[in-house]
Design a protein that fits this description.
The structure holds 2 protein chains of 2 kinds.
Chain A lengths: L1 H5 L29 E3 L2 E3 L6 E6 L4 E7 L3 H14 L5 H4 L2 H17 L1 H12 L3 H22 L7 E2 L5 E9 L2 E5 L5 H14 L3 E6 L5 H13 L6 E5 L2 H9 L6 E5 L2 H13 L4 E5 L5 E4 L5 H9 L11 E5 H16 L19 H16 L3 E4 L14 E4 L6 H4 L6 E7 L2 H9 L6 E5 L3 H10 L4 E4 L18 E2 L6 H4 L2 E9 L6
Parallel strand pairs in A: 7-8, 7-10, 8-9, 10-11, 12-13, 12-17, 13-16, 15-16, 17-18
Antiparallel strand pairs in A: 1-2, 3-4, 5-6, 6-20, 11-19, 14-15
Helix pairs in contact in A: 2-9, 4-6, 4-8, 5-6, 6-7, 11-12
Chain B lengths: L8 E3 L2 E3 L6 E5 L6 E6 L3 H14 L5 H4 L2 H17 L1 H12 L3 H22 L7 E2 L5 E9 L2 E5 L5 H14 L3 E5 L6 H13 L6 E3 L4 H10 L5 E5 L2 H13 L4 E5 L5 E4 L5 H13 L11 E5 H16 L19 H16 L3 E4 L14 E4 L6 H4 L6 E7 L2 H9 L6 E5 L3 H10 L4 E4 L18 E2 L6 H4 L2 E9 L6
Parallel strand pairs in B: 7-8, 7-10, 8-9, 10-11, 12-13, 12-17, 13-16, 15-16, 17-18
Antiparallel strand pairs in B: 1-2, 3-4, 5-6, 6-20, 11-19, 14-15
Classes of the chains: A alpha/beta, B alpha/beta.
């Protein structure tokens, strides 16, 4: 679909992928793994409990999955702690070999790309064409990127005063809890595992209950390519039980969470209440997309509607300069009406279902509030199919900054368009939010581009593009959108403890 | 019998005959027999190669517009192909250079693969900076490739030197014209074939075997080569530097000779130190720039150290390098052989004690008996000049201060070793030694992540590690006027 063509996450050379090269998907992929992955083995939950994972395109149950709770978290943390002990195979391994294992994992995922894309689409609802040409290739690239860092993360020798030889070691933190969301299941798994494993940590990962299946298949590949047991442990389970158990665990050294700001607050509190584990958070956003030039309709459409609107960095406040406002709105509405909503396994589909009933209800609730509070519903606003969680691409015009749909993260295919006059005004309005994840400005003027990008309080600013990601470029939020950065070299900081070693010497010389 | 198919010049991903029709005879130094002939690159061939490399470097070319991560993937793919052909390459290497096959397989090829993988990982991690300058400006640096890089490599570790050179150069986005040594062109030409198979665009790597005085000279003088990297003797290193100054001021990095001190204190683990000092000298038939060719032993353990070193040297097995159980192969060629024998004679003549060896080893070929000299004084030729053969010099010292002085009294400064169990001595001596690599309680411990290079006349610049990237990067600072700077 057009999303795959536009999406800048993936800029593989044409010889690797083209629309013609997407293999016809098996729409009923087998599920091979549905248990907890601890110490390179498959376990039932201690309690024996399971939960269903649903196909959001139909509302039907795909299969039951073992449900981790506190007792299982305990087992996993023990395994991860043991794998991290001084002298363990993982601690003794050459850094370059850690990198080699990550590269092998990337290769194995690439080998099984078609199957993983099918499973991802089945469990999450995103169009198969996108799973195959965007999600999977970027998983592979992320793992390869961090594979390359493993033996290049260098400490320093430092010229301190006095007769001392002083240096730093960049050590792993230890056992890292990682809690990932359902909107990009495989990609979020890779973003978390890459830096953590490159730097030598061990991991207890809780995957989202809505989308556990692909992460568990990757666990089998982790074992296949040779990671020592206990280095990676993967637990499907619920936030309030398994997730909370990780966040408050006294023997987890660090927790990384991607999800809602609301839960982010809880994670940070749990850390303070337990052992002060290091915390990094990637949370929500209400990202401003500032339009000053007249050729941004397609990009702005994509900025909001990609992944069924289920992106933390969705451009959900589209600010359009007054002179070009009317035409922009008209063309945006026309584009939204043309958006192809349907069976995610159909290669022509641009938009699949929302991930579950809860999200579906929440989004429709926001649409009602928009209508109620006086925004102008230009198209969509309703359910798009008889079964599954499909919502019509929706556009609201004449949105005011104080409306609920202007302030709260909707996480669905609902676009808000605002009018503005001057650059100073729009900068102020764009920054008037508790969030600060991403932002964009579309302009041909070099001065405006520099001024606006400097002024926006957001962790990623795009100029004349949107949703351009690379494993090499850091990503993260200002303010309530999170703490810390993922990706890039910066991503390694969050998984490192710096140890300073100072040795007395008889006589220091420069 | 091993196939030797690649005999032509590799330019623009194609195989070319030499313009002038010259050929290089390639010999097996263990038998003296001719293995084959390869095309000999001369000035015109170098010109052709440079034109091809320049075209591949043009703005908008496939290579220039490629994602950095894809450059890295190509290097990783090349590493995979070397791993696939590891047995073949190790065999070619042993036949062509005389090195022991098991060493070629486990050391040379392993290092080659790891180096390619290491730099594959750096390609998309080469960061410029954004910089808070004074004034209303937005300033950043781009770390750009230099351009067309000429690379001249030696015969002692042919394929490994090939990887050490091309990997950082390609990682940073340069294009390359590389001249392997005339004695050992075969593995380089096989690498050329793998480079094409891996998918590097035409012109990115060009391989032109030839002689130093012709092809090497053409490279170092070339007006359209932006940088030259040379590994070889200090004498030729000086010529390269002069040539750069004489032509277009091309950037120069040099990895030259060494007369490396290996300092053994009485408080070391003696047997271990003997073994390390032995392999530190005799590895690769003594043909290492890093060879620990001045072993300074503290007086209390001197006699015992010499005794054990001699025993070790005498136990070495010489023979056909392809056979397991063989420790030492032939020297590379007659010229080297003659030079080593001459220096051995000088050692005898100048009064060093010849403990063992000191002569040709029976069979046809270029074999020299493992040789140990004791009671060597600092003014002897064997104490000052790089021998590049299986000849170990063992000197006596009494104090830390004395040995540091003596170790540093040389124009060279490539590597050094220190054997001691005392933390203070280890740190003091390693800080004081004028050498680019200092090993404490080990020798020849090398890895792709760790920079390698010389102080003084052992060269300039560093290879391997992150440091090598600097040598293949031009920094461009871009400053943009903005209407209002904010922090």
């Amino acid at each position: 679909g057009r999303d795959s063509a536009l999406f800048r996450l993936n800029r593989l050379p044409a010889r690797h992928f083209s629309a013609a090269a997407i293999p016809a998907p098996n729409t009923q992929p087998d599920v091979h793994y549905n248990k907890l992955f601890i110490n390179n083995q498959w376990h039932d939950a201690v309690s024996g409990k399971t939960f269903p994972t649903i196909n959001p395109a139909t509302g039907e149950v795909i299969c039951q999955v073992a449900e981790a709770d506190e007792a299982d978290v305990e087992k996993a943390v023990k395994a991860a702690r043991d794998a991290f002990r001084l002298g363990s195979p993982w601690r003794r391994m050459d850094a370059s070999h850690r990198g080699l294992l990550l590269n092998r994992l990337a290769n194995a995922i690439e080998r099984d790309a078609a199957y993983l894309a099918e499973l991802e689409t089945l469990d999450n609802g995103k169009p198969y064409a996108v799973s195959y040409t965007v999600d999977i290739p970027n998983v592979v690239k992320c793992l390869r990127y961090y594979a390359g860092w493993a033996d290049k993360w260098e400490g320093k020798t430092i010229p301190i005063d006095g007769d001392y030889f002083c240096y730093t070691r960049h050590e792993p933190i230890g056992v890292c809890g990682q809690i990932i969301p359902w909107n990009f299941p495989l990609l979020m798994q890779a973003w978390k595992l890459g830096p953590a494993l490159a730097t030598g940590n061990t991991v207890v990962m809780k995957v989202a209950e809505q989308t556990p299946l692909t992460a568990l298949y990757v666990a089998s590949l982790i074992k296949e390519v040779g990671f020592p047991e206990g280095v990676v442990n993967i637990l499907p389970g619920m936030g309030p039980s398994a997730g909370a158990a990780i966040a408050r665990h006294m023997d987890v050294d660090k927790v990384a969470f991607t999800g809602s700001t609301e839960v982010g607050h809880l994670i940070q509190q749990a850390s303070g209440s337990s052992n002060l584990k290091k915390v990094t958070l990637e949370l929500g956003g209400k990202s401003p997309n500032i339009i000053l030039s007249d050729d941004a309709v397609e990009q702005s459409h994509f900025a909001l509607f990609f992944n069924q609107g289920q992106c933390c960095c969705a451009g959900s406040r589209t600010f359009v300069q007054a002179d070009i406002y009317d035409e922009f709105v008209e063309r945006s509405v026309e584009r939204a009406k043309r958006r192809v909503v349907g069976n995610p396994f159909d290669l022509k589909t641009e938009q699949g279902p929302q991930v579950d009933q809860e999200q579906f209800n929440k989004i429709l609730g926001y649409v009602s509030s928009g209508k109620r509070e006086g925004a102008k519903l230009m198209c969509g606003g309703g359910v798009a199919a008889d079964r599954g969680y499909f919502i019509q691409p929706t556009v609201f015009g004449d949105v005011q900054d104080n409306m609920t749909i202007a302030r709260e993260e909707i996480f669905g295919p609902v676009m808000q368009i605002f009018k503005f006059k001057t650059v100073e005004e729009v900068l102020t309005r764009a920054n008037d939010t508790k969030y600060g994840l991403a932002a964009a400005v579309f302009t041909k003027d070099i001065d405006k581009a520099n001024y606006v990008s400097s002024g926006l309080r957001a962790g990623t600013v795009w100029i004349n593009c949107y949703d351009v990601f690379g494993a090499q470029a850091p990503f993260g939020g200002y303010k309530a959108s999170g703490t810390g950065r993922e990706l890039g070299e910066y991503g390694l900081d969050n998984y490192t403890e710096v140890k300073t070693v100072t040795i007395k010497v008889p006589q220091k010389n420069s | 019998m091993v196939q030797l198919p690649f005999k032509y010049l590799f330019i623009n991903n194609e195989w070319h005959e030499s313009c002038r029709g010259g050929k290089i005879p390639v010999y097996n130094p263990a038998t003296g027999k001719l293995l084959c002939e390869v095309e000999e690159a001369d000035n015109e061939d170098v010109d052709k190669a440079v034109r091809s490399a320049r075209a591949a470097f043009e703005m908008g070319s496939l290579w220039r517009s490629m994602d950095a991560s894809d450059r890295g993937q190509l290097l990783t793919r090349l590493a995979d192909l070397v791993e696939r052909d590891r047995l073949l390459l190790a065999t070619l290497e042993a036949l062509d250079s005389g090195k022991v096959f098991l060493m070629a397989y486990f050391v040379d090829l392993m290092a080659t693969i790891k180096t390619l993988r290491y730099y594959g990982g750096w390609a998309d991690k080469i960061h410029g900076k954004t910089i808070p300058v004074d004034g209303e400006y937005f300033t950043y640096t781009r770390h750009e490739p230099i351009g067309v890089c000429g690379q001249i490599i030696p015969w002692n570790f042919p394929v490994m030197m090939f990887a050490w050179k091309i990997a950082p150069a390609l990682c940073c986005g340069n294009t390359v014209v590389i001249k392997p040594a005339e004695q050992t062109p075969l593995s380089a030409l096989h690498m050329a074939a793998l480079i094409k198979e891996a998918g590097f665009p035409p012109g990115v790597v060009n391989v032109v075997p030839g002689y130093g005085q012709t092809a090497g000279c053409a490279i170092s003088h070339h007006m359209d080569i932006d940088k030259v990297a040379f590994t070889g003797s200090t004498a030729v290193g000086k010529l390269i530097q002069k040539a750069a100054g004489d032509s277009n001021l091309k950037r120069v990095t040099l990895e030259l000779g060494g007369k490396n001190p290996n300092i053994v204190f009485a408080d070391c683990d003696l047997e271990y130190a003997v073994e390390q000092a032995h392999s530190g000298l005799f590895f690769n038939q003594g043909q290492c720039c890093l060879a620990g060719s001045r072993v300074f032993v503290e007086e209390p353990i001197y006699k015992e150290f010499v005794r054990r070193s001699v025993e070790k040297a005498k136990s070495k097995v010489l023979g056909n390098p392809l056979l397991p159980g063989v420790d030492q192969g032939p020297q590379i060629d007659q010229k080297q052989f003659d030079k080593i024998m001459e220096l051995i004679e000088s050692g005898k003549r100048e009064g060093a004690t010849l403990e063992c060896g000191g002569a040709v080893w029976g069979h046809p070929g270029l074999f020299i008996q493992p040789t140990v000299f004791s009671n060597v004084t600092d003014d002897m030729r064997i104490a000052k000049e790089e021998i590049f053969g299986p000849v170990q010099q063992i000197m006596c010292f009494r104090s830390v201060h004395e040995v540091i002085q003596r170790a540093n009294t040389t124009h060279y400064g490539l590597a050094a070793g220190v054997f001691t169990s005392d933390i203070d001595k280890a740190l003091t001596v390693s800080s004081a030694l004028q050498a680019g690599m200092v090993w404490v309680n080990c020798y020849n411990a090398m890895s792709a992540q760790c920079p390698f290079g010389g102080f003084k006349m052992s060269g300039n610049g560093r290879e391997l590690g992150e440091y090598a990237l600097q040598e293949y990067t031009e920094v461009k600072a871009v400053t943009i006027k903005i209407s209002q700077k904010n922090s």
